[in-house]
Write a structure and sequence with these properties.
This protein has helices spanning about 10-15, 80-90, 130-140, 145-160, 175-185, 205-220, 255-260, 265-285, 305-310; strands at about 1-5, 45-50, 55-65, 70-75, 95-100, 105, 115-120, 190-195, 225-230, 240-245, 245-250. It is an alpha/beta fold and about 325 residues long. It folds into two domains: about 1-250, 3-Layer(aba) Sandwich (Rossmann fold), CATH 3.40.50; about 260-310, no CATH class. GO terms for molecular function: ATP binding.
Length: about 325
């Protein structure tokens, strides 16, 4: 489930190297600038657009993530969460827009040791023990000797897997398996940890334990960007990015979101924002006499239960 931060080739690194001319906004690349790194957000995305063939998967997405916070990226399956995370770690080149991570362009060489990425698909070796996996990935990251052993011991403790250190990963539970992935991503003590649905398929008890680990990491200063399609995980985040159909519906802390929408919980707020967005889309579509994939008459009354049900038939939240 985990991949150490990918190493771009030299040409790729040079190509991705920060280019101050790429950004005209307030956040500039610090490789050549005097701005202190601490003043910059952990992540700043501007107008991100990604197309798959002719289909837009991310549509003009912009947001910032402050340092040392837990940020939840929430939205239904297929809305573009993984694509967005891949842009942040620099393995997905956007068709338009730009992502700045810890003062560098996403994927820039200096971020190799500063960003941890826990992918959705498992990528630790099931036939190796926890320690063997960690030693392998630490060596792949260039760690040798006592430095490698120190890092391995530290991360095993950080994810509470000391009792299972010599167990083959295949014999671990789902939650323990996820922790091995997380441990790999922590080997470099990343400043930014990007996790793609790390709690998917886990029971509530195990999810709770994992979130305690995330909170501990945030308290130590790590910025966490965590995707989920489980809305109740929003309560554990400092800040939320709500997505639907490749668009960012909101970027706010939970309390502001609830206050702004007048809703009692994040799921309700999400549905409210979708209705508002749908109504705006329908109005725009009526103006252009064409609606992309929606029936405008259903959206005349955005609050009406039938219209809502019809709108959510395509991708509902779990
Ligand atoms: N390699 C690809 N080729 C074509 N389409 C793709 C590819 N990868 C993703 N997509 C499409 O892009 C859209 C967004 O996918 P993405 O994986 O980013 O969504 P997601 O919100 O992470 O979904 P999930 O929660 O199910 O993982 C989906 O409609 C998906 O089918």
């Amino acid at each position: 489930m985990t991949a150490p931060f990918p190493r771009p080739g030299r040409a790729e690194a040079a190509r991705r190297g920060t280019d101050p001319t790429k950004l005209s906004g307030a956040v500039q690349n610090t490789e050549h600038s005097a701005a202190p790194a601490g003043d910059l957000p952990a992540v700043a995305a501007y107008g991100l657009t990604v197309n798959r063939g002719t289909r837009p998967v991310l549509r003009n997405v912009s947001f910032t993530i402050p340092r040392g916070r837990i940020v939840g990226l929430l939205g239904p399956s297929g809305c573009g969460k993984t694509t967005l995370l891949r842009c942040v770690v620099g393995v997905q080149e956007p068709d338009a827009g730009h992502v700045q991570v810890l003062g560098h362009s996403a994927g820039a060489w200096p971020l190799r040791t500063r960003v941890g990425y826990v992918t959705q698909a498992p990528s630790v070796y099931a036939d190796l023990t926890v320690l063997e996996n960690l030693r392998y990935f630490a060596a792949a990251l260039g760690m040798r000797g006592w430095r490698r052993e120190d890092a391995v011991v530290r991360v095993v403790k950080e994810v509470d897997l000391v009792a299972y250190a010599d167990q083959p990963v295949a014999r671990l539970s789902g939650g323990q398996y996820s922790r091995v992935s997380l441990a790999v991503a922590l080997l470099n003590r990343p400043d930014l940890l990007v996790m793609d649905e790390p709690t998917v398929g886990l029971d509530p008890m195990v999810r709770r334990e994992l979130w305690l680990v995330f909170q501990r990491l945030a308290e130590q200063g790590t910025t966490l960007l965590v995707s989920s399609h489980v809305m109740d995980e929003a309560d554990r985040c400092d800040r939320l990015l709500l997505m639907r159909s490749g668009r960012l519906l909101a970027s706010a802390d939970r309390d502001s979101l609830l206050k702004h929408t007048g809703c009692a919980d994040v799921e309700e707020a999400f549905l409210h924002l979708v209705r508002v967005a749908a109504a705006a889309e329908a109005r725009a579509a009526r103006r252009h006499d064409a609606v992309d994939g929606l029936s405008p008459h259903l959206l005349d009354q955005p609050g009406a239960p039938d219209a809502e049900r019809a709108f959510f038939a395509a991708d509902t939240l779990t």
